[in-house]
């Protein structure tokens, strides 16, 4: 039978290696609450990782604030479409 010290060391090493492996695949940024109102002066947007528990669009405001928004809301979809259109035609800004 293995000494208690060896068992403890092996358990510790296994726990640390499992923690390191799972932490490597964790999403970097997720949203847990959505903005309730339209964002003024949106500059850009991006979607959060598919690994997040809630789907979200992050809208970047003119002052640099990053605000989580519900991708199912009409105002969010209109904002996204407008930003995509501005990206294709920068002269319309």
From TrEMBL:
Give every Chemokine interleukin-8-like domain span.
Answer: 27-83
Q: Name one GO cellular component term.
A: extracellular space
Provide the leader sequence positions.
1-23
Q: Which SUPFAM superfamilies match?
A: Interleukin 8-like chemokines (SSF54117)
Q: Name one GO molecular function term.
A: chemokine activity
Q: Which InterPro entries match?
A: Chemokine_b/g/d, Chemokine_IL8-like_dom, Interleukin_8-like_sf
Keyword Methyltransferase applies: no
Q: Is-annotated flag, keyword Signal?
A: yes
The protein's name is C-C motif chemokine 3
């Amino acid at each position: 039978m293995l000494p208690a010290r060896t068992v403890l060391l092996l358990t510790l090493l296994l726990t640390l290696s499992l923690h390191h492996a799972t932490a490597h695949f964790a999403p970097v940024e997720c949203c847990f609450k959505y903005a309730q109102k339209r964002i003024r002066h949106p500059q850009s947007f991006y979607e959060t990782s598919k690994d997040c528990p809630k789907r979200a669009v992050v809208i970047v405001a003119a002052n640099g604030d990053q605000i989580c928004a519900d991708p199912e809301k009409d105002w969010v979809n209109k904002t996204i479409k407008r930003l995509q259109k501005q990206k294709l035609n920068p002269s319309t800004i």
